[in-house]
Amino acid sequence: MSSGCPPQSPAVAKSEVAIEGECPLLAATFAYWDNILGPRVRHIWTPKGEQLMFLSDGEVTFLANHTLNGEILRSAECGAVDVKFFVLAEKGVIIVSLIFDGELKGDKNTCALSIILPQTELAFYLPLHTICVERLKHVIRKGRIWMQKGYNIISVLSLEIIPIMELLASMKSHHVPEDIDIKDTVLNDDDIGDSCHEDFLHKAVSSHLQTCGCSIVVGSNPEKVNKIVRTLCLFLTPAERKCSRLCKADSSFKYDTGLFVQGLLKDSTGSFVLPFRQVLYSPYPTTHIDVDINTVKQMPPCHEHTYNQRRYMRSELTALWKTDSEDDIPPETVIHTDETFTPDLNIFQDVMHKDTLVKSFIDEVFMLKPGLSLRSTYLAQFLLLLHRKALTLLKYIEDETQKGKKPFRSLRNLKTDLDLTVEGDLHIIMAFAEKLRAGLHSFVFSKPFYTSMQERDVFTTF
């Protein structure tokens, strides 16, 4: 053999994942830059079963290497994760690659965690892009700790790669359509009492809007669950509906972080256990709706939710860093090791804030004759009203704070001037405004940090 030949690259480890249904994901890869061999693929995950498109291991390796080419001179802050989106028309694929620095075998390397999909799935994937990226970013944070300690990063990455494959497969078969016919929802019934109690519908929609349009609907009857899911999705934008999922009739999906509305079926014992960690990592607080017993509960508002989320995330990463063995703390364990922060596992509270906006809408929409387009038109006008109120609130706060240069101190005046004196109305409009301008809740309530109980006291004193 000629001495000038490069050393042979070792075989790439591969995991075939059994996924129920059609998974649009072709493969996921973990690759790194080797100073001798250049880009190298460490592991490949592929869904097992029939696929519309098939890539050989060699093609997957070529595509993974493509994402690392040119990254050798990468200059980024320590711990930064760069997200790159490739559309390779000549190969008919799209690649979402997260580039980060990590230690392998004692050396600092540039790494890439990538997912590969057919180009034909671009429209399907784009609405879900943010959800997938945020979940992969956090598993990379844990993976970098595992790499630093010399543990097997593949086992950690698999904990998120496999659920994302399952998420994409479930969204392919049970996603909520962009256009919802009001005839398939509770709002088309002749009498609200036919399908659900009036107070239950009012409380469900009100809490749904207060938690930025994020809700979990659980129950034993899939038809009833899906009817409520479609009803709540009427109050979302078409893009947000693409990030919502109906329940599956014959078996229940797992809870997935990041979806706006998702229907979940109870098991044979009539219960459904929500994973604390995944619910807490949702980007917005969530409403929990049980259609069997007509209960509605919600998580604390955005600023408190974000505060708890960040503290738990730091606690989780700190606990992983303190491990002495790879088996000490499984990466999916609920962390209790930080003495300064004990997470409250009972994160859902009763809906405390009454409103007039949704109450008036519910009362009036059922006065209109069903079967016509009147109710759909009335709903569109209602959502437009909420959107304009949210824009007005943002403009009001901008003017009062000189676009953030001063702290906001006139909540009482805002409530009076914008006709938001009822707490529930204020929470609904604040939630709409939060989606338009992320961080609004934290800015308004600023320091000191208000818990939900303290916040209710503040609302009553202003």
Automatic annotation (TrEMBL):
UniProt cross-references to InterPro entries, sorted A to Z? C9orf72
Pfam families per the UniProt record, alphabetical? C9orf72-like
Q: Which GO cellular component terms are attached? A: autophagosome; endosome
GO biological process: any one?
A: autophagy
Instruction: State the signal peptide span.
Output: none
Tell me, what is one Gene Ontology molecular-function annotation carried by this entry?
A: guanyl-nucleotide exchange factor activity
For this protein, the record's PANTHER family field holds: GUANINE NUCLEOTIDE EXCHANGE C9ORF72, GUANINE NUCLEOTIDE EXCHANGE FACTOR C9ORF72
Q: What is this protein called?
A: CI072 protein
